[in-house]
Design goal:
The protein is mainly alpha-helical and 143 residues long. It is built from 6 helices and no strands. The protein starts with a helix and ends with a helix.
Amino acid sequence: MSRFLNVLRSWLLMVSVIAMGNTVQSFRDHSFLSEKLYTGTPEYVNGLQARTFGIWTLLSSIIRCVCAIDIQNKTLYHITLWTFVLALGHFLSEAFVYKTAPLTIGVMAPLIVASVSIAGMLIGYQCVPEPQEEVGARQKKRN
C-alpha cells in the first residue's frame, strides 16, 4: 500500500472521530447547531433537526471509518467520497442559497475538511489497486 493511502487512512479516521463528537453534541444539546453552524436562522434549529443532523453525521462517520479500515475496497471508496461531496454541497447550499449558515468558523471548518478530503480521495484513487477479479476478467477478454 502506498504511503499516500496510509496518510489518507489516518485522515479519514481522524475526520470520523471528530464527526462522532459532533454526533454526540447534536443529540445532547441542539443549541450547538444554532450557535456554531446555522447562525443565520437559529430559530429554524430544533431538537428534531439536530437529531437528524446527528444521524446523518453518524452515518458519514461510520462510512469514513470503515473506509479507513478497508481503503482498497473501491465501492466503499466511492461511497466515502460521496459523503464528502454531499457534506460540501449541504454546507455550500446552506451558506449561499438558503442563507441559514453564514461563513463563520463553524461553517468554514466543514467546508475545508470536505474540500481537502475530496481532493485527497481523488488523488488517492490512483493508488487503490484493482481487485484481482477485474484484472482476470480483462485478461480473459483480451485472449
